[in-house]
Amino acid sequence: MTALTLSTSSAAALRADAVVVGVAKGAKGPVVATGAEAVDKAFGGKLADVLETLGATGADGEVTKLPAASGLKAPVVLAVGLGDVPAKDDGYDAETLRRAAGAASRALSGSKKGAFALPIEDVAGAAAVAEGALLGAYTYDKSNGNGNGGAKDGKSAKSAKSAKNAANADKKNNGPLAEVALVGGKPRDKAYKAAVERATALVEEINRARDLINTPSNLLNPADFAAEAVAAAKEHGLKTEVLDEKALKKGGYGGILGVGQGSDAPPRLVRIAYTHPKAEKTLALVGKGITYDSGGISLKPAGHNETMKCDMSGAAAVFATVVAAARLGLRVNLTGWLALAENMPSGSATRPGDVLSMYGGKTVEVLNTDAEGRLVLADAITRAGEEKPDAIVDVATLTGAMVLALGNRTFGIMTNDEAFRTSLHEIAEEAGEPSWPMPLPTHLRKGIDSPVADLANMGERMGGGLVAGIFLKEFVADGITWGHLDIAGPAFNESGPFGYTPKGGTGSAVRTLVRLAERAADGDLG
Predict the structure, then answer these.
(1) Are strands 355-357 and 435-437 parallel, antiparallel or unpaired?
(2) Most buried in the list 16, 361, 363, 416, measured by CB within 10 Å?
(3) Catalytic: which of 113, 271, 374, 383?
(4) Is the pLDDT of residue 86 over 60?
């Protein structure tokens, strides 16, 4: 991963491949942001004029490269847009700094070192620039594509080796920015050091989630994912329990088994837990982990299944969050439940109209096998509730309806407690993840009644994302605060990269969940 350092050197004196400065959108043209004074001085105070001549406006995420003036050690100046000039005394908010740093990191892909002279006014600003720069530097390492579920015959192994060699050659030219130096940082200040350490641990775990999401489904089935969790648990002192198909059958996990029974790759339920001896709060996180979703017998049409390796993004986020909490030493007990299955059509697959006996005893009529995420989550939520946590939060790429409602960059929040919904929304916004609180209208509950089971897995078409939340709520034990994050929109970016967000897996919800865990460690769950 990209190295991150705090530097007391002047932006003009720091040796790097490029020095990054901020430029804002002013009423009369671009305005050079604070932090770039030494660079502006090298241009005779005319850096803004030069940038305007080159067409720069200061718009959010805009990147302009120009040769450095004499007096600068770096050969290139990279000006990144910060958007509108903030009101007097307001300064730039954390998310603006994250996005700008991320855009700069992406523009410096393949470089050895970038000196970031962005407007860092305090510890929070340093943390935001650090996070954005590290997140933006991410690239998926295709040479790791031959993982636990890799080539099983000579021909495949030869192809995998060729792909790995090609990836390594590509990495030399287009690998991530190797080092980020934060100009204006204070390396001897404990608060600044702690901010950098947190940013590094957090982003490394977000990138773990991104790697898992980007891994092709033939190289990451439920057993492979479980093995990744076990390996990380050993490294970070976490406890794990893995239920294979035999244990799932013995335990009565009909939802997970019903979804996975059409695949040659059997399902798994993974419990991964971090505990702190001084913890006062306990959180349970439940992640949907469909390692590939064909839709099952209710097969997805062409054009809707090509990216379905990402349907385990919720489980990846939960996994990454638990490891991050351990690395940060948070004073909270945190248990992650990874509900892992592959949803495939076959002669043994669950059919529309079948009835499944769920963990805990409820029965569900399966009207649509492509509404499978709620089935695996229901089993895991019920099991998580048996441990009586203070709160349960599930995370899932659950419904296309939520994407239609909120778009590709915003996730929906549903809960059984209004105060908790408000708290989750505030936490997500604080972490820099766009979200929106959604209702659970009681009139939609009748739509999931079934004549042959306790519930049906489908209800009214309109408001489908809300119906899915109502279904999940049925499996939350009385007295437990519960939240549901539908990350179907932002989990996988199919368009071009922007800010610190790459194409492909994004690691959506990890920052929100880690911030929730930090609040819980402080005794606050909303």
Answers:
(1) unpaired
(2) 16
(3) 374
(4) yes
Report which DSSP code applies to 509.
T
Distance CA 422, CA 483 (A): 11
* Nearest Cα residue to 111 out of 235, 203, 20: 20
* Lookup: tokens for 79: 């000006």
**Distance, CA of 420 to CA of 404 (rounded, Å):** 24
Burial 70-94, CB ≥16 within 10 A → b, else e? eebebebbbbbbbbebeeeeebbeb
Measured between alpha carbons, how far is 475 from 433 in angstroms, rounded to an integer? 27
Q: What is the mean pLDDT of residues 271-295?
A: 98
Closest of 399, 291, 303 to residue 344, by C-alpha: 291
Cα gap 291→270, rounded to integer Å: 14
Exposed e or buried b per residue across 359-382, where buried means at least 16 C-beta atoms within 10 angstroms of its C-beta: bbebebbbbebbbbbbbbbbbbbb
C-alpha separations of 481 from 190, 261, 383, 443, 477 in Å: 36, 32, 15, 21, 9
The rounded distance, in Å, linking the Cα atoms of 213 and 439 is 29
**Whether residue 300 lies in the annotated active site:** yes
Whether the pTM exceeds 0.90: the reply is: yes
Are 471 and 373 within 8 A, CB to CB? no
Residue at 393: amino acid letter: V
Residue-averaged pLDDT of the chain: 93
pLDDT band at 143 (very low <50, low <70, confident <90, very high): low
d(CA 212, CA 227): 12
Q: How far apart are CA 97 and CA 132, in angstroms?
A: 7
End-to-end Cα spacing for the chain: 35
Instruction: Count how many residues are written for the chain.
Output: 526
Residue-wise pLDDT for 183-219, tens only, equals: 988 888 999 999 999 999 999 999 999 999 999 999 9
Q: 63 pairs with which residues across the strands? A: 80
What is the rounded CA–CA span in Å between residue 392 and residue 378? 12
- Return the SS3 of 280: coil
Choose the catalytic residue: 300, 409, 473, 503.
300
Numbers of helices and strands, H then E, in the chain = 15, 20
- pLDDT reported for residue 524: 87
Alpha-carbon distance of 114 to 133, in angstroms, equals 10
Helices 190-214 and 510-521: crossing angle, nearest 10°? 140
Please say if the pLDDT value at position 169 is more than 50. Answer: no
Could you write out the DSSP letters of every residue in 315-333?
Answer: HHHHHHHHHHHHHHT-SSE
Does residue 327 have an active-site annotation? Answer: no
> Is 173 within 8 Å of 110 (Cβ atoms)?
yes
